[in-house]
Amino acid sequence: MVDFEKLGAFYLGRTCEPDTGKPTGELVLYDSKDLVTHGLIVGMTGSGKTGLGVALIEEAAIDGVPALVIDPKGDLANLLLTFPDLKADDFAPWINEDDARRTGSPPAEFAAVQAEKWKKGLAEWGQDGSRIARLREAADIVVFTPGSSIAPVSVLSSFAKPSSDDDELVRERAQTIVSSVLTLAGIEADAVKGREHILLSTILLSAWRSGENPDLATLVERVQKPPMTRVGVMDLDSFFPEKDRFEFAMAINALMASPGFAVWTEGEPLDVAAFLRTPTGKPRIAIFSIAHLDDPQRMFFVTLLLNAAVGWMRVQSGTSSLRALLYMDEIAGFFPPVANPPSKTPLLTLLKQGRAAGLGVVLATQNPVDLDYKGLSNIGTWWLGRLQTDRDKARVLDGLESANAGGGGGFDRADIDQLLSNLTSRVFLMRNVHDEGPTVFHSRWALSYLRGPLGRNELKRLAARPPAAEGAKKPEPAVAVASTSGSQAPAGNVSTTRPLVPPDVPQYFTGLLSSARPLAPAIYGSAEVRIADVKLGVDVTRQVALLAPVTDGPVPLDWATAERVEMGPDALQAEAPEGARYAELPGPATKAKNYAAWTKQLGAWLSANETLELMKLPSNGELSHPDESERDFRARMQQHGRETRDEAVEKLRSRYAPKIAALDEKLRRAQQAVEKESQQATGANLQTVISVGATLASMFLGKKKVSAGTLGRVTTAARGVGRSMKEREDIGRAEEGVEALESQRRELEAQMEREIETIEASAHAVTERLERVVLKPKRGGVTVKLVALVWREP
């Protein structure tokens, strides 16, 4: 055993006779430094390819070289099945029960057989349990199951910017990340011509230039509202219309909304340095089992891991020694000769530049025709096992010839062809450019128990088992940060990323918001309601704004439960507040067709339920104003009564004024007539008295004889008395006329006063009981202005 325990030497097996495959006893010790020029293992099923790969990884671990191991089939997790005591009880939990049934042996018996088989096999190759113990002490071996809850890897929590300042590297990283995301989402987009690829890469690069490390949810949100207005020389909407951008975002969102999406955001972060060594610096063999993933998911994870390895490689100092190993089984499909999948670019970068950083890449496949041999020209060591067809052999020979074109070790195609034709199981032809010629050897017995691919239950038990030497705890799951409609979110269904909605769904924010509480979604409705009644003289138009809750229930929205708000459409804001967090968005709010239905429902609901309630004064039919209180209405009616009274009195007095004036004129003339008649009667009386007195005096004082003349004067005087009496009668009649006119005037004034009293009574009628008048909008009276998704503080 001392012969192969040498520093920097990987014990791979012994040389053997090419024809028989029997070991000759000469040890095959591979110089670890040679692995910085990478390696390739090719062999059909049953060739021993997996055993050789396991041995190579074991040797690296014993030598203190950490490794990233990508395991598409699930059998490289056998590296964790190491039993230094080689007891049957150690083997028993891990035996393949199908193999046990085929042999007809009970499980316990089969486990004992396996333990003895391993003990004997190790002894034949100069190994024993102490070397297994040395392996377990040299490195921690852990398994991860990306895309599974067993031992997840957080790959979607963020897409960190490369630490390098190399613009070419940054652009390359963005392109490969975007390619992997599009592949996982099932979107075929060329990195040069595909608008999906160009847009998402541009958004990612923009975020990096701003110092951000965005998560996938952030990128999807920015697909809808990109941080640029032009792409190349074209404006954004011409290059990628808003509707098409939404469909693109929804395709990625479908990935995020899938039940298994959350697991991509949980687990140990995608940190190559942490995968390669424990916090105390101990080497680590990190096995990434991806057998449970479908092809797009495998491509997605492998691409991200390879990109992370490129980033780690870029920051390492130069070295000529092997610093770390990256091993990938079943490389076919990830490194094809013609196509350009997302994994190909970072893999080529690792093959071309890994040597300077001491990163050795070892690839394995059973399908050599599916490899890009131009890219494999960077590989210095080829381990070739038994091949299935002549076509496979020809392809391998072409690759070897291409790899040897740079010189180093002679290459004889015919000789190599002959050697390949005679290979048997576990026999390999090693072509190392650092050696003079090819070596045919038989691979050694693996220290790990190779029981075949491990199932989910076995992986779960292995993931729960702490590493042997340090007893390290299983990494705590990372907190999920992505959240979209229907997608997974952090605890409490709160996210820092706005949920994804179609572009034809209007989306706003309710004014000034703080980031203290998560914003809650609601459906905002704004309408103009006109209520008119020609008979009542009512024509009112009012603005109505409502906020209704939305749910995932059978009736996602009911306007009857809406809250009436004083918030017109102009008060809404289109931009999200800084640092906003978002509550979960119910699915119905993400469907554009629902908003059209909700718009019709809002119009119908307002037509049926929006009313104008007024108060009516029965005595005069006066109506209150919209939203006028009873107090204000009665006060207004009182004032209106006073004004109406004064106006009516004025009109009444104006109507009676001509009649009163006419009577006053008649009365004036009648009074004048009475005065005239009185004056005339007074003059006549005086003249009569004088005449009569003079006559009598001449008769009695003159003692003359009464003559005929005297008798005539007496007669005239008597007639004067008669006239005076008549004048008095005229005065009486004139005075009666005045009295009659005065009576008429008094009656006219009394009539006017009675009518005024009636007016006064109506002015005080506002104390009467008011009637309630309810009006509704007529057909066409409701015009819905806006129905939109609104984010507000709860």
Domains counted in the coordinates: how many?
3
Cα distance spanning the termini = 73 Å
Number of strands: 25
Assembly state = single chain
Strand content: 15-25%
CATH topology of the largest domain: Rossmann fold
The gross shape turns out to be rod-shaped
Mean pLDDT: 83
Query: What is the rounded Rg?
Result: 56 Å
Strand order of the largest sheet: 2-1-15-14-13-3-12-11-4-10-5
Number of helices: 19
What is the CATH domain class of the largest domain?
A: Alpha Beta
Full CATH superfamily name of the largest domain: P-loop containing nucleotide triphosphate hydrolases
Question: Helical content, roughly?
Answer: 40-55%
Q: What are the segments in which pLDDT stays under 50 over at least 5 consecutive residues? A: 469-492
Largest sheet: 11 strands, mixed
Class of secondary structure makeup? alpha/beta
Tell me which CATH architecture of the largest domain applies here: 3-Layer(aba) Sandwich
Tag the structure with descriptive keywords.
single chain; 794 residues; alpha/beta; Rossmann fold; 3 domains; 19 helices
In short:
With 794 residues, the chain is α/β, with parallel strands linked by helices.
What this model shows, in words?
Helix 14 runs antiparallel to helix 15 and helix 18 runs antiparallel to helix 19. The protein has an 11-stranded mixed sheet with strand order 2-1-15-14-13-3-12-11-4-10-5. Helix 13 links the parallel strand 11 and strand 12. It is rod-shaped, with a radius of gyration of 56 Å. 42% of the residues lie in helices and 16% in strands. The chain has 3 domains: 367 residues, P-loop containing nucleotide triphosphate hydrolases (Rossmann fold), CATH 3.40.50; 120 residues, no CATH class; 101 residues. The chain has 794 residues and is α/β, with parallel strands linked by helices.
